[in-house]
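Journal club prep — side note

Before the paper discussion, L.F. wants everyone to see what a predicted structure for a comparable chain looks like in token form. Sequence:
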Amino acid sequence: MTPWQFRVELHSETGDVVRELGDSGEAHLEDVSLQVSDANAAREAFNEIFHPLSELNIDDGENPWVESFSVAAQQGSEQMNVGALLGN
């Protein structure tokens, strides 16, 4: 578990998970909006370890939560609200 209370997974580009998921050109995540209680500290730590990702926005919030994300595919992009997906 990370100090900012959410888990991060990294997978080798040649590993089983990436191979099973297929080509990122077919579909991938963009504009991920992550909320944590101390966004500045989380952003600094994340960037120091993983380097900045333009697809990830870290904002202040009460608890760790992915607010929304976009699924980008060859056919276009669709913004997803996680609360709506979960029926909240």
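L.F.'s comment for the group: DSSP finds three helices and four strands in the chain. Keep this in mind when we get to the figures.
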